Amino acid sequence: MQQQETQFDLNLIAVFDALLRERNVTRAAEDLDMSQSAMSHALKRLRVFFNDPLFVKTGSGMQPTPRALELSSTVLGLMGTIRADLLVHAGFEAHASRRQFSLCMTDMGELIFLPRLVERLRQVAPFCTVRVLQISPRQIAAALESGEADLALGSLHSMPEGLFQQQLFTRSFVTLVNKGRKDIGDTMTVEQFFAMEHIVVSLSGKKEDGYDSVVDEYGTKRRIYLTTPHFLTVPLMIERNPDLIATVPRELASAFARYKAVRMVETPISLPHFAIRQHWHPRFHHDAANSWLRKLVKEVFEGLPE
After folding, report:
1. Per-residue model confidence as pLDDT tens digits over 236-250
2. Which Gene3D superfamilies match (predicted)?
3. Which of 27, 78, 88, 155 is 20 to 30 Å from 237 by CA-CA measure?
């Protein structure tokens, strides 16, 4: 006989409730927005804790055992109280909230996407404030799990499994060159591209984790001179060092080109678009404020033109 657990995870009450109502593991998992494997694991934990099968597969679905029926009134009563009393007061009232939202994003995100998001946030949640975190990709999952950060926004590489994510839009790459380069016209040749030295932006500091790492899948080795975690360094470096170039997201290049020191040309090799996504931790998937913020972010950036 399996050893009974000494501590009960209160999240299992919702699992018990869903199984009582649905009598089907798949439908119960869908009701709680869980995977079927996670639901099966939760049922196993319930069985171990109560030392009883609780729900038995029959021709008419998962039927509760006498022990489960004995517990059902308590479980349904608890969930009824939560729905009737607690959740009524748990909604997020954006217009009156004074919450500070914390976002993980790069300096590119701050320059290009944050102004648009803040503009909308100030309209619908005028008393809320925003804090931006720039942390190592390896620390993002922990920041989301602890609540230090509400969302991580961007084209983030090597994100750990277990986080929820939602694609917001896609972007293409272009190449930045010094505006004074007379040997590069409106276009650049493949030979010129690979002959020049490159700047790579990588949050981890490793060139293989760079935002433009897809360039290296082309098959020709680049001459990488500088690897930096900061996008804002790029135009300053190219302005003072005309032999350097960088392949960056198009919208960022457009912003830099407005300052006249650099200009953008189409990258002479075919590159796939990259996706901008928002990431959050399952712990806050049903949090009212986090859910509201995710919906706002989706509305602000959904359908954003290239």
Report:
1. 999 999 999 999 989
2. Periplasmic binding protein-like II (3.40.190.10), Winged helix-like DNA-binding domain superfamily/Winged helix DNA-binding domain (1.10.10.10)
3. 155
